[in-house]
Amino acid sequence: xxxxxxxxxxxxxxAGLAVGAVVIGSGAPKDKEHGFTLPDxxxxxxxxxxxxxxxxxxxxKAGHFAFACDVFCGGGHEDMxxxxxxTE
Length: 88
Prior knowledge:
Blueprint: E1 23-27, E2 34-38, E3 43-47, E4 53-57, E5 63-68, E6 81-86
Antiparallel strand pairs: 1-4, 2-3, 5-6
């Protein structure tokens, strides 16, 4: 009998985020330290394993804004980025 490997892919739909909305994010990595940076809004924090790490901010402008993990954390680090979309 051949071994079967099942891989699940998950895609998240974009959520509507408006100027002035309070954004609260949290992360609890299980492997190693990560970082979160969203320079256009002055957001930067370390995300440490073993605890829930929270950030909050209120976007004051509309547009597309890059965010990323800014602490090298091993394989896959280069894919830990995205775009925050804020609408009027």
